[in-house]
Write a structure and sequence with these properties.
single chain; Immunoglobulin-like; 17 strands; 14% helix; 43% strand; four-stranded antiparallel sheet; 256 residues; seven-stranded mixed sheet; mainly beta; elongated; 3 domains
């Protein structure tokens, strides 16, 4: 009988609770590193929560943001994780509408994870789960110059943290020779520029690796090297022209 009663209570708990998620898991929000992101959390009743308590935590139970009847981490309440200090805020004017959403500013890849917004003191369970994915910014690739010696490519990585390793690779993943990188530091973020000269037709990619967070991103570019015909090739006439055309046609099938 007690077992049956426990099961009935459990079922009642499940029916009266609310979780913001879909059938496949929490709602997923993706943001580029360095940008601000809002994590939504609002009561279905839209009732005033200025005198209530709500708690935001990450999946490892890290204290992200806690609000308790007007007292919170941004006005003197202790306990917030160092990871989020000075970067998380709520919407004071929206509390009267049941809105407990927060903003995480200057997002970092390390902020990625599942966040839970909980109202632990309410009789009716209100719990919201949000999966945050912070992706490292993709590098920018530009063609700087094209000469008889080849094509000069430049890769720029802006606002990366922690400091990444940047390198040029060919389509097979082989590292290409490059000039010494230009690195500037702005606060805790890095701006890196890396140049390489390409002498062969094909795909090249700039690969950015952040070993501390096990993250990697890249951008690709296809470079077509056009070689000027020598006088001897011109004398060869039609045969030389046909050979060049066939060579270009074959290269077109080998795009990235």
């Amino acid at each position: 009988m007690k077992r049956l009663l426990d099961l009935m209570c459990l079922c009642l708990l499940c029916l009266t609770g609310k979780t913001l998620c879909d059938e496949n898991g929490p709602v997923v929000i993706t943001v580029e590193e360095g940008r601000d992101v809002m994590l939504p959390c609002s009561l279905s009743t839209k009732e005033d929560i200025k005198s209530e308590l709500f708690d935001w935590r990450s999946d490892d139970q890290t204290d992200v943001f806690l609000y308790d009847n007007g007292l919170h981490y941004n006005n003197g309440r202790p306990g917030q994780s160092e990871q989020f200090k000075g970067r998380v805020s709520h919407f004071p004017d929206e509390l009267r509408h049941g809105n407990a959403s927060i903003i995480i500013r200057n997002t970092k890849v390390a902020d990625s994870g599942v966040y839970t917004c909980d109202f632990p003191l309410r009789e009716k369970i209100e719990m919201f789960h949000i999966k945050l994915v912070v992706v490292a910014p993709e590098p920018d690739i530009n063609i700087i110059d094209a000469t008889d010696d080849g094509v000069l490519l430049q890769c720029e990585v802006q606002g990366a943290a922690p400091k990444p390793r940047v390198e040029w690779q060919d389509r097979d993943g082989n590292k290409l020779p490059a000039k010494d990188p230009q690195v500037s530091e702005r606060g805790d973020r890095y701006h890196i520029t890396l140049q390489t000269t390409v002498t062969k037709t094909g795909c090249c990619r700039c690969v950015v690796t952040q070993e501390e967070t096990n993250r990697r991103t890249h951008a690709e570019i296809y470079v077509a090297i056009i070689v000027k015909m020598s006088m001897w090739n011109k004398i060869l006439g039609v045969t030389g022209i046909l050979t060049a055309v066939l060579g270009v046609a074959a290269a077109a099938f080998l795009l990235c």
